[in-house]
Amino acid sequence: MDETYENAIKQLAAQVDEAWNNGDAAKMASYWVQNGLNINPMGDVFEGC
Question: Rounded to two decimals, what is the model's pTM?
Answer without folding.
Answer: 0.68
